[in-house]
Amino acid sequence: MNDHIAPPAPVPTPRPMDGAARFAVGALALAGASWAVRAIWEIRLAVAGEPASGPPDQGNGAHRTLTGLENQYHLVVSACGVAVVICAVAFIGWLGRARDTARELSGKRPRYSGLWVYLGWVVPVVNLWFPRGIVAEVHRDSAPGERLPRSVNVWWALWLIGLLSGVGLMSADSTDQIIARAYTNVGTLLVSDAAIVGAAVAGVFVVRALSRNVSSRRSG
Question: Is residue 56 a part of any domain in this protein?
Answer without folding.
Answer: no
